[in-house]
Amino acid sequence: MTTPPVARKIPHRMEQLGRVRVDEYAWMKDDNWQEVLRDPSLLREDIATHLRAENAYTADILSGTQDLQATLVAEMKGRMQEVESYPPQPHGPWSYGVRYDRGAQYPVYTRHRTDAPQHEQVLLDMNACAATHDYFAVATAIHSPDHRLFAYAEDTQGSEIYRVRIKDIASGQMLGAPIDNCSGAFTFSPDARHLFWIWRDDHGRPARVYRRAVGSDTDTLVYEEQDAGFFVGVEATRSGQWIIITAGNHDTSETWLIPAATPDAAPTCVEPRRTGVMYGLHHWGTDFVVLTNADGAVDFMLMLAPQDAPARANWRALVAHEPGHYITECMTFANWLVWRERHDANCRIVMQTRTGDRHALEPREAAYDLSLCGGYEYDTVALRYIYQSPTTPRQWFTYDMAQRTHTLIKQQDVPSGHAPADYRCWRLMARAPDGQDVPITVLGRHDAPCDGSAPLLLYGYGSYGHAIEPDFSTRVLSLVDRGWFYAIAHVRGGSEKGWNWFLGGRGANKPNSFTDFIACAEHLVARGFGTAGRIVADGRSAGGMVMGAIANMRPDLFAGIVAVVPFVDELNTMSDASLPLTPPEWPEWGNPLEDAAAYDLIESYAAYEQVRPRAYPAILAMGGLTDPRVTYWEPAKWVARLRENTLSSRPVMLRTNMEAGHRGATGRFDSLRDAALIHAFAIWAIETA
């Protein structure tokens, strides 16, 4: 077996709030990291050499799985439509869609006259754009309200620092110079004469809103956020009557308005920010619908505010707060209000007329995902939504809200074949140490034995109030069809059981996310869905924090742990105010620069800080060199410290994508290689345990 890389140790002593810590691998953070995000070739050579050595070691350890990886890629590709398209969205005389051509890695954005679908116009061919880049992604791609223009935000490094281009559709010519340093978020003004876009500062934070007259190269500052912990956003209302600027962090928000009739007017604040109060506006006739947690509405409620005086003093009740029924989003139509709410890890879509008549879409499977598709039309009764479950491929429906009739407009096809009856989905509840019931979604073959003999992959996230939906995934079928169970632990920190479920895994309550995950693993073992020591745990990004914690807390439960772009150096990251996400995330984890209790809490669970001599399972950590969210040095440092301390013979591996960021490879087929690597590692970890 190849000898693993040995990272040199250069002790770096830090004193903070009277506490001292030593980081022997701090040298892996390039002082030039901000420039590296824009140009990866600038990475310091000693760091690059070490990362390449780690990649070579990982490839060597898993070299015996190369044929398996190729088989897995072929299987996953065989479940994908080579030629694929998604239901176009109508907008007046045009319908706008997205399709993939045979063999194409990237989508093509198109449109056609609604009454002449055979005459297609190509708005953006991402394959042509990506041809000269190792990495290519588009964050936003939209047409102007008058259908003359098309704009898109492109990223060619993976750093999420976007360049916006505006195209005249008729001539195909680009208008004006590209807009650089964009966060990827922008919107046309409803009159299509201006583009409002978000500027990223030198720390990578969305901090300003600019307005550019289409065709010019001059930008006018519209709004600048002074709080480094607040990110800004911009959008036009569905009604086309307002431009909305938002500023907020994870628990406080503020909204500013610009009338569409005067897009060059200065924005006006709706209601000044107040710590702990979130609100968002949706224009509806002569009012705004306000989605807010004000007045203790933990799971949010809907209020009405007159558009001429939308301040908090004028809000009046529309949809009352119902504890445990978390309103995740809402949409307004000319005569309808639609919202989505989540209860006990499943969701429903509710519709209400202006007169208060209300009905809901609420499927009855044990676990499923029901999502709104948005759309461009405001004065319509047609609602577009998607239904799916772990056993049921995606189905696109148009729902007539007035007639209450469904029309299936597309169903995901699995070319290699898929029979939902061959699979079974379970919804279980694990008892956490404090008595809370933690939902678990399990997928397996219908005839899979629940006697502990099957290997188990357990996925978890648990941060930011982001719920992991029980959706349909063709990729996990490669494990399930090999006799595995695939499970999702809906741990606290997400919002599967409402906003309190998020608050129960946040800040001082963060350790609940870790103990919930362990409780889920133990419950699955007790129910025969796995055996201790034959489980592979999987977490991505903030879910990697869970992976780092459970590796330290209960390494005996797992044969392997996958941690993709993992947030595992929590104390050092939250103590570095120059990093893009640090100030905005102090409400999430605490501020260890100013709060001793927060320092001690983060240190108590931080994966990197809590590495000790113990028998760790096999670990595969994966990072991205240009990742602005979880920087490449976090997994690199963690792996070095784990390898130094582990008492087992199980390998600790690092694979860094030297050409991508947080999201990994962007091509639809290229991304299969990462998924195949993870599955192959999981199979290898079980077979070699």
Automatic annotation (TrEMBL):
Name the gene behind this protein: ptrB
- UniProt keyword annotations, A-Z: Hydrolase, Protease, Serine protease
Q: Which domain of life is it from?
A: Bacteria
Q: Which family does it belong to?
A: Belongs to the peptidase S9A family.
Q: What is this protein called?
A: Prolyl oligopeptidase
Q: Where is the Peptidase S9A N-terminal domain?
A: 5-412
Q: Where is the Peptidase S9 prolyl oligopeptidase catalytic domain?
A: 471-683
SUPFAM superfamilies the UniProt entry points to:
alpha/beta-Hydrolases, Peptidase/esterase 'gauge' domain
Cited InterPro entries: AB_hydrolase_fold, Pept_S9A_N, Peptidase_S9_cat, Peptidase_S9A, Serine_Peptidase_S9A
Question: Which positions carry the signal peptide feature in this UniProt record?
Answer: none
